[in-house]
Specification:
Largest sheet: 7 strands, parallel
Bound molecules: ligand GMT
Oligomer: single chain
Order of helices and strands: EHEEHEHEHHEHEHEHEHEHEHEHEHHH
Mean pLDDT: 95
Low-confidence stretches: none
Strand order of the largest sheet: 3-2-1-4-5-6-7
Radius of gyration: 21 Å
Structural class: alpha/beta
CATH class of the largest domain: Alpha Beta
Helix content: 40-55%
Strand content: 15-25%
CATH superfamily of the largest domain: Glycogen Phosphorylase B
CATH topology of the largest domain: Rossmann fold
CATH architecture of the largest domain: 3-Layer(aba) Sandwich
Number of domains: 2
Number of helices: 15
Amino acid sequence: MKIGITCYPTYGGSGVVATELGLALASMGHEVHFISYAIPHRLTRFVNNVFFHEVETSTYPLFEHSLYDLSLTSKMLEVIEYEDLDLMHVHYAIPHAVSAYLAKQVWEKAGRKIKFITTLHGTDITLMGLEPTFMPLVKFSIEESDGVTAVSRFLKEKTLTNFNVNKEIEVIYNFIDIEKYKPVEEKPFLKHIASCGEKVLIHTSNFRVVKRVTDTIKILEKVKKEIPVKLVLIGDGPDRSECERLARDLDLQKDVLFLGKQDAIEEILTSADLFLMPSQSESFGLSALEAMACGVPVISTSVGGLPELVIHNQTGYIAEIGDIDRMAKYTIDLLTNEKKYKSFAKNSRERAVTNFDKNLILPQYVEYYEKVLNS
Ligand code: GMT
């Protein structure tokens, strides 16, 4: 198949899933054409069967704002035509599904056919898509997609109820490369972050408000009263300054390591003892899955699709949003009970391998592509 993939190229779950999917499809012999405004951040080297088409936004004195959605539509049309695509797969509804819809219409006017699949990832449904200005457009683009997938049962249900759409939505979970993300004995990173043998808590995200990253620092404050511990924060975004301020205010600046954006996250994850995900909204929780695959148990909130990933009292613990006391208590409980910790770490890895291995999920996408193309 020749597949066009559009995604956000930035440091975020939807872009990661789209890129890893494209790379995996290419390794199976499919031809994959990424169409976005920048090269996806995990697409760092030449890969056979993978092509990147950059969307350039028009600059003309009359345009005060960039016409990205239209430039994207035009680039999609160009790639559909010259690369003879069989299918477009867009990740995150706004504006990608709308651009794909428009490209499809233009292409049909020319007497040609192209189908497009939209994968819903999270805030396109739970936050941004609900804004009154976007809602009718998101609903429309979902209804007009030839196929729609959601990354959890939760997200599927939310889409059906929030947008009152009558559409078949296929649930295809996030996936993980279990060979790349795996527990290791050697932990060279550990001496740099916990030189006195402290336990290591970790969190990775785009530091948006929905991630509630400040909660991880509040948890650290409570846990530190009981056991020696460090907190590693990976990523960057709007809440980073607030987090740095809180760490200083609580006199924890030496105990919180802000590493910013990192590429080889798996190397750092394997040095951690626990992953914290105190999100206020999370459709699946790819970064928690990355930790679990490395044998790192997760303490998360109960929101969204997280209970479809984290099994309470087996692979970690689940608490209510903002319940810092409980999350701190769970952290102390797990880090002071070696037998329980070992079994949670083993369960976490097993759950990632058994349910979310790339080799299990990838055929679900391929089958879905075939179903949509043959419908
Ligand atoms: O929805 C977002 O905030 C953006 C999106 C992204 O691009 O980072 O993240 C979502 O997609 C991931 C991959 O499918 C999911 O694992 C994340 O749970 C989801 N984030 C949220 O729902 C907040």
